[in-house]
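Write out a record, focusing on structure:
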Amino acid sequence: MTSAELKYLMAIDGLYDGTVGIKLIAIAAKMNVTKVSVYRAAERLEKNSYIKRDDKNKIVMTEMGYQQLEQYRMLIDWLGNHLQMKCGVSAEIAVSDAIGAACAFSDESRTALAEFIEKTKENRQ
């Protein structure tokens, strides 16, 4: 997933309440982009089964979308926190860079890192 696609998925998640689908225009307004940009991103996200359209052609999150977003958020939080605490990077830059880094990982590396983070959390508890 590209960082742009991830940002769209995060925006959709922020708007989606689990019941009522979201209009493209609402996503565009939240992200301050054009409806055409949202339409193109939605097509890519739908192709990868992260979102789908309901019977009114509105956007809804899929279970796969939630799972992927959860994994990405875990990596973003972990990387962002390390950049801030260990490297002194500002919060805004740390999150932005963490999003880019998480999206640059291969599926294999992203999954392995997520498993590592989970194991690390379990060992601390």
